[in-house]
Amino acid sequence: MDPQTASAALLEIAARAPVVPVLVVERLADAAPLAQALVAGGLPVLEVTLRTPVALDAIRAMAEVPGGLVGAGTLLTPEDVRRAKAAGARFGVSPGATEALLAASEDEGLPLLPGAATASEVMRLLERGYRALKFFPAEQAGGAALLKALSAPLPLARFCPTGGIGQNNAAAYLSLPNVVCVGGSWVAPGAMVAAGDWAGITALARAAAAIERASAA
Ligand code: 3PG
User: Fold this and answer.
1) 189 lines ligand 1 (CB under 6 A)
2) Pairing mode, if any, of strands 115-116 and 158-161?
């Protein structure tokens, strides 16, 4: 899959909801009810980070949940890309971008949202054909102000910022024309997942899904 096609696929996925939950699944048994709770709250696009031993099985379980669209996050190596694809991930997310990771995603046909945090990183990815990018770590790297500043010289790039975003500051990002969605873990707090508070998570998702955004294209 060429980078242009990958980014087009990512932009279509991002258009489905303003917020993509970033999930760290510790217990496989939580995967399906967690996905159901988030989908019920209006957040169908889910990113399962490859940070726990059950992550790949969690992707398999969540991929069965009606209405959900599950991707894999924290992709760092070509092997991560292959395993995520085999588990049924529909897209991949990385905190950064390396030649090996980009090549593996293109070869495997897994649409990748590669990470960038500076003008040069954005320019390198645009040069290769990617225009849907993860802006990470969003708050620490300069927040919505940095993305606003990048939009004038780099108008083609579209961002899904992630890192330090919550219900309080998501709207500041989503009001920017170059932001298509934001990612974050705040809609699935570890303590609520551990307690099986699915209704509480649906309520958090519903609030997140209601945040208005300026652009989805
Ligand atoms: C991550 O990869 O951990 C994401 O950036 C989520 O960040 P958050 O926990 O600050 O929302």
Assistant:
1) no
2) unpaired
